[in-house]
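Regression test attached.
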Amino acid sequence: QSVLTQPPSASGTPGQRVTISCSGSTSNIGNNYVYWYQHLPGTAPKLLIYRNHQRPSGVSDRFSGSKSGTSASLAISGLRSEDEADYYCAAWDDSLSGYYVFGTGTKVTVL
Amino acid sequence: QLQLQESGPGLVKPSETLSLTCTVSGASISSSNYYWGWIRQPPGKGLEWIGDIFYTGTTYSNPSLRSRVTISVDTSKNQFSLNLSSVTAADTAIYYCARRITIFGVALLNWGQGTLVTVSS
């Protein structure tokens, strides 16, 4: 059972902006960086955001991340059909000798 | 170009040990910049981090699986492995190996394609 909570679903029409939230605690998001992954069925997950808001080379600037306190969010601007996927936040958790934890996941649907 | 490839049995009997290997090509597993790890996704569920290992043998693991998980590294073969003991149907999942790059924090930048492991008699 994940300690990072995300809404199960989000949706928007092409061109819209969609925001996904990720809620945690001081032992994870509050004291550590947040990461975001995109996962399309049948493929390997893809890192979208690292260290709260940084984008790896090759990731579109339509994806942006932010963090405040024990919560974080991922925004997708200019929504496209290819953005339809599952999105997961993640963070290191300092409790129980330390471990990496994924959020519950959000399914983004492009209407 | 970095490639990670999972290999191992696709079917494991309940109470037995699940064993998977990830073969790394295009990068040295002995680099001080990387950790090498395992993640799984049960059918219809989300991603779950299992654990990872540094080339020196230092490991981290998910507290919920810690008592059953062993992760090891073979630098001579540029491989790392996962053993999960006493499996049940709940361990049925797609298992991914991945590389964590320390300069990016704890980002899992590179992933294998995943391998489905079914636990069934």
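Expected vs. actual: identical. The mean pLDDT of chain B is 96.
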